[in-house]
Amino acid sequence: MKLVEILHHRENFNQVEEDIAKFVLDDPKSVINLSVREFASQLFISPSAIVRFTKKIGLTGYSDFKMKIASELAYFSKDDTTLVALDLPVASKQTVKDIAKTMMNLHSQTLLDIYLDLDLKNITIAGDLILHSDWITIFAKGESILAAEALHQKLLRIGFNSHLEALNGFQLVKPIRAKQPIGIIISQFGDSREMLADLRELSKHNILTIYITSNQSNKAWQAAEIGIYVENNETLNKMGSFASRTAYLYVTDVLYEYVFSRNYDENVKLLSDYAFQSRTRNRFLGVDD
C-alpha cells in the first residue's frame, strides 16, 4: 500500500498521528524540506512522536518517510481522491462520466507507478541484446500476447528477424539457424509451466533470454539472463487486464524505442519505405491511385 493511501485511511491512528497525516496530505512538498525538529514544531509535538509514527506505518525513520513522500508526490491531491482499485475499478451502476474518469485515473496511476520503478539498467541491457541479435523469438501466453504481438510487429517494421507464434500449441522452441539468437518471454504472473519449459529449452540451446514479468519469486526469473520486472498488483480476480495491459505495453514500448533510437536515421528511413510500400500495394479494395 502506498504512503498516500495509509495517510488517507488513517487506520488505528491516534489524534497526534491524525494531525501528522493531515499536515502531510495538506502540504507534502513542505515536509520534504523540513527537518524532523522543524516538522515537530509545526504541530507542537516532539520529534520522537514523528519518528514513532514513521515506524508504526512500516518505515525505518523520518528520512525514509521524506523519501516516500517525494517518490509519491504526484499522488497527493487536495480533493482526497483515492487511488483506483486495480481489480475492480468500477462500482455498481456508475455513470459513463464517472467510469471515464476512473479509467483515466487508473491508466495514469499505472504509468506513474511503472515509470518510478522502471528498471532502466536491465532495459538497456535487453535493448543491446536485441540490437546485436540476428533472430528474435518471442513467447507469451494469455493476455500477455497483446504486448508481445505489439513488440513483434514494431520490430518487424524496422527490419529485425522477429518471430512470434500466438496460437496455443504452436509455441515450441523450433530449430534456429542463427549466430546470435535471443528469446523474449513475456508473462505477467510467471506461473506457467509452458513458459518455464520454453525458457529451459532456450537455455539448453545457449540462447540468451529476456524475461519480462511481474513475478520475481519463481524459477523462470532466476533462470533468465535478463529480467525486467513490471510492478503490477492485479490478481486473478480482476475485472479485466486494464493496468497490466498498460504496464506491459509501456515497458515494451520503452524497450523498443531504445532500440529504435540507437539507429535512428536508418530506422526512420525504414518506416518511410514501409509506409510507401503499404500505399503502393493499394491495400484497400476499390481505391485507385
Record keyword descriptors for this entry.
289 residues; alpha/beta; Arc Repressor Mutant, subunit A; Rossmann fold; 2 domains; 5 strands; elongated; DNA binding; transcription regulation; DNA-binding transcription factor activity; transcription
Write the layout of secondary structure elements.
Layout: H1 3-9, H2 15-26, H3 28-32, H4 36-43, H5 47-56, H6 62-71, H7 96-116, H8 120-131, E1 135-140, H9 144-157, E2 162-164, E3 181-187, H10 193-204, E4 208-213, H11 219-223, E5 226-229, H12 242-262, H13 264-280
Parallel strand pairs: 1-2, 1-3, 3-4, 4-5
Describe the structure in brief:
The chain is of the alpha/beta class. Helices cover 53% and strands 9% of the residues. The model has no long low-confidence stretch (mean pLDDT 84).
Summarize the helix and strand pattern as letters: HHHHHHHHEHEEHEHEHH
Query: Strand order of the main beta sheet, please?
Result: 2-1-3-4-5
CATH architecture of the largest domain: 3-Layer(aba) Sandwich
The CATH homologous superfamily of the largest domain:
Glucose-6-phosphate isomerase like protein, domain 1
- Report how far the terminal alpha carbons are from each other: 58 Å
Which structural class do you get from the secondary structure elements?
Answer: alpha/beta
**Biggest sheet descriptor:** 5 strands, parallel
Helix content: 40-55%
Beta-strand content bin: 5-15%
How many runs of DSSP E, i.e. beta strands?
5
Overall pLDDT confidence: 84
Low-confidence stretches: none
**Large-scale geometry:** elongated
Indicate the radius of gyration in whole angstroms: 24 Å
